[in-house]
Design a protein that fits this description.
The protein has 458 residues and is mainly alpha-helical. Helix content is 68%, strand content 5%.
């Protein structure tokens, strides 16, 4: 505690150019990530697949994959510039203090008696700011779904469904964000300099609550979960779970095809009661043994305690964030540098603190991706020991073709951005001989291949 207090006093220096420093951080990060993207774009201009995949992927599929990768890279570059313009404009023109004052005026004029304190003011400010940024970013989101993904045959959504999901997300954000943000602010206000201990305990409670409530109350708002029908797949998955002593409670199929051709499989739940969810697109595009092989990889993460380790790391990271926040929460020079001279709102302090922490976040992202790739190799090895080496390799190749995923990657770009090893590395680790017939996407999936889901994929 004394060390954190002393550090806070040391950093609170009148006239310190926090605004210039944070803008410098943002520009440096943008330039660095742009350099990595440039390196990766050169890889996307290659005309032949990596040697490991020459016998697995035909030239037409490889060309489509490269074209898709280049299209995403160009879109990422343009959207990145758009985001930088927003960030620079917000900081340079002091839009945060202007919006804070505006929402304060609204609250003073129209707020009900007894609801004019910092918590109510913060809620109005936060949701107004979120609404503005959502509207500003609508063109980017629309283009991504209905132009980029549509062009390559991946989008299954409609404008109506897209708008409905957007409205549901906003409503859900208000319904859940109001009590959570109110509790966050109240804890900071009432617990003094040791608030970060209580925030940490609150954060853990929220996560456990989310694990319980998400599949019951939130997921059904966007997707339909149906029990997996009796058959070879259900029998195979249940046998795998029993073999590994995995506490399987229920097996579900999710209607992922409602929005896209993405495929995935995952599990969730408390330690003593787990649920497995399989995308309908994965079942449609894969053989039964290949789906079981996918799940053997996923359950490998559980059996090897990867999920527990990542959860533990996440808790440590959360504690470290809140502890460092206690260093900056009373930093008047930071507030004043961004135009806050009379009021020093907690939420503004947290936003500015997050911006100042950006360089450290880059390092943490790199280290977490290194660890994640290690875990992926270990989960693959786990599946191999269960006897699914061939089936998993075939599934990986199929999903790569469905997704038109990047077949190769620049090592610097992959080290910084990728949480999963690239396909040639995984096939090499699986001992895949490459003796199978070259993959034909039309034969495997029909005329149009579709993508694999983002998130924690295979």
């Amino acid at each position: 505690m004394d060390y954190l207090r002393a550090l806070g006093q040391f950093l609170d220096r009148p006239g310190f150019p926090w605004k210039k420093l944070i803008i410098t951080f943002q520009v440096a990060q943008y330039v660095f990530e742009g350099f990595l993207s440039f390196r990766q774009y050169r890889m996307l201009q290659q005309t032949r697949p990596p040697k490991t995949l020459e016998g697995e992927v035909d030239q037409e599929t490889f060309d489509k994959s490269q074209a898709y990768g280049r299209a995403k890279a160009r879109f990422g570059s343009i959207s990145g510039i758009y985001s930088q313009i927003q960030n620079f404009g917000t900081i340079y023109y002091d839009l945060l203090p202007r919006l804070w004052d505006l929402t304060g005026t609204w609250l003073f004029r129209y707020g009900p008696y007894g609801f004019t304190g910092e918590i109510t003011h913060t809620l109005i400010f936060f949701f107004t700011y979120n609404l503005i940024t959502t509207i500003i970013n609508l063109p980017v989101a629309y283009y991504s779904t209905f132009v980029l993904e549509e062009k390559f045959g991946f989008n299954k959504s409609t404008v109506r469904l897209w708008v409905t999901d957007l409205l549901k997300g906003q409503a859900l954000g208000i319904a859940l964000g109001t009590p959570l943000l109110s509790a966050f602010l109240a804890i900071v206000q009432k617990t003094g300099n040791s608030f970060f201990y209580y925030l940490f305990l609150f954060g853990i409670s929220v996560q456990l609550f989310a694990i319980t409530i998400y599949p019951i109350a939130i997921l059904p708002l966007f997707n339909k979960l149906s029990p997996l029908k009796e058959g070879d797949l259900k029998t195979g998955v249940e046998a795998l779970a029993k073999r590994l002593e995995f506490p399987l409670k229920e097996l579900f199929v999710i209607d992922g095809s409602k929005r896209s051709a993405h495929s995935n499989a995952y599990f969730y739940g408390l330690p003593w009661k787990k649920h497995i969810v399989i995308y309908d697109t994965l079942i449609e595009k894969s053989e039964t043994e290949e789906v079981v092989a996918v799940l053997s990889h996923e359950l490998g993460h559980w059996s090897l305690s990867h999920t527990t380790k990542l959860f533990g790391i996440a808790q440590f990271h959360m504690f470290y964030i809140f502890a460092l926040f206690s260093v900056f929460i009373n930093n008047r020079s930071l507030y004043q540098s961004f135009g806050f001279h009379k009021e020093f709102p907690i939420i503004i302090g947290f936003i500015l603190f997050s911006e100042a922490l950006a360089p450290m976040d880059m390092v943490i992202k790199l280290l977490m991706n290194v660890l994640s790739r290690k875990f992926e190799f270990e989960a693959d090895e786990f599946a191999v020991k269960l006897g699914y080496s061939t089936q998993l390799a075939k599934s990986l190749i199929k999903l790569q073709i469905q997704n038109l995923s990047t077949m190769d990657a620049d090592w610097m770009y992959a080290s910084y951005h990728f949480s999963h090893p690239i396909l040639p590395e995984r096939l090499g680790a699986l001992g895949w001989s490459g003796k199978e017939k070259k993959a034909d996407p039309k034969a495997m999936f029909g005329e149009k291949p579709g993508p694999v889901a983002t998130g924690r994929e295979l």
